[in-house]
Amino acid sequence: MAGQEMSKELATGLLDVRVELTLEQISELAHVERSVVIELVQEGALSPRGTSPEEWRFTGPALRRLQRGLRLQRDLGINAAGVALALELLEELDRLRARLRRLEGR
User: Fold this and answer.
1) What is the dihedral of CA 4, 8, 14, 19, to 10 degrees?
2) Number of domains in the chain
3) 103 vs 106: CA distance, rounded Å
4) Which residues contact 43 (CB under 8 A, 6 or more apart)?
5) Low-confidence residues of the chain: pLDDT under 50
6) Which residue from 31, 44, 45, 102 lies 20 to 30 Å from 92 (Cα-Cα)?
7) What values do phi and psi take at 81, rounded to 5?
8) What is the pLDDT, as a whole number, of residue 3?
9) Rounded to the nearest 5°, which phi and psi values hold at 58?
C-alpha cells in the first residue's frame, strides 16, 4: 500500500480487519521505531499474522491498539509488559460495558 493510499484509508476511517499493514507501515503510522512495535508483539500486546517481523501483517484494529498502548506508555510510564496487561483489562472492560448496555436495552 502506497503512502498516499494509506493516508486516504486513515482519512476515511476504513482501517478495519481487512486492511493489512507491514511492520514498517504500522511503525510509520504510529510514529514509533520498529523496535517498539517488536517489543509490544513479544509481550503479547499485539498479535500480527505471520511468523517473523518481515512477514508480519497488522490489521486496522491492531493500529488502534498500538496507539492506545503508546498513550499508556507515554502518559503513565508503563513498560511493554504492563501495556499488554492494561490493554487486555481495558478491552475486557469495554466488552463488559457493551454487554451491560445490551442487557439494559440501550
Assistant:
1) -10
2) 1
3) 8
4) 80, 81, 83, 84
5) 1, 11-12, 14
6) 31
7) -65, -40
8) 53
9) -110, 150
Rounded distance between C-alpha atoms, residue 104 and residue 56, angstroms: 40
Residue 47 grid coordinates: 498479535
Phi, psi of 21 (to 5 degrees): -120, 140
Look-up of cell digits 481487512: 18
Residue type, 5: E
Show the domain range for 92: 3-104
22 grid coordinates: 507491514
pTM greater than the 0.85 cutoff: no
Sign of CA dihedral 65, 81, 95, 18: positive
CATH of the domain at 94: 1.10.1660.10
Q: What angle do CA 88, 92, 97 make, to 5 degrees?
A: 150
